[in-house]
Design goal:
alpha/beta; 4-stranded parallel beta sheet; two-stranded antiparallel sheet; 9 helices
């Protein structure tokens, strides 16, 4: 079996979605075999694609606040593995970024997750990641996140932390009141 470093090198050279994109591919993810928390996002945005750091944008600022961690902790791969459903920026749609490309998950997800044996908490962010991980049992994002207690202590669905979700956050005050304190406590426990 190849090492995680070898696998990450292959992912860095991946061109599988290039024929479908108008821009150059740049896989963006973070992983180490001793990571404690797995963050499953959707796909990098333009800023993250440009910098090569996942969640290197206002969404990341909000996510780090939700988790109760510093930027340094967040980008410590021994603490956090960040493995989106699509590794490359998918392009712009009419009302935001396009969905993650469908090639990444089948090609890379299982081999990559096989190396992450120390994960204590998985955070599943946004509709595309939730559909992949929970299927139809979860419903939409609101229903899925409202049912966070149904999934046990090792996995939590979250809305996307994008500023585009400000309206969702205002309409769902229970998220910050009920879920965020538990999320912060679980993250602190996992990375302690």
């Amino acid at each position: 079996m190849e090492t995680l470093d070898q696998l990450l090198e292959r992912i860095a050279r991946c061109q599988i979605c290039q024929p479908h994109l108008s821009h150059k591919v740049r896989p963006v993810l973070q992983a180490a075999s001793n990571a404690k928390v797995l963050i499953v996002g959707q796909a990098p945005g333009t800023k993250a694609a440009a910098s090569g750091l996942p969640f290197d944008d206002p969404s990341g600022d909000r996510l780090r606040d939700w988790l109760g961690v510093s930027r340094e902790q967040f980008y410590d791969s021994s603490l956090f593995a960040i493995v989106p459903m699509g590794f490359c920026y998918p392009g712009k749609g009419r009302s935001g970024d396009l969905p993650p490309r469908g090639e990444c998950a089948p090609a890379w997800r299982e081999p990559l997750l096989a190396h992450l044996k120390n994960i204590q908490l998985t955070l599943v962010i946004g509709q595309y990641a939730q559909a992949y991980h929970f299927g139809k049992q979860c419903g939409g994002v609101t229903e899925c996140v409202q049912g966070w207690q149904l999934y046990g202590n090792q996995i939590m669905p979250l809305p996307h932390p994008s500023p585009r979700n400000n309206l969702w956050l205002r309409r769902n005050p229970w998220f910050e009141i009920e879920l965020l304190p538990v999320l912060k406590a679980r993250v602190a426990s996992a990375i302690a």
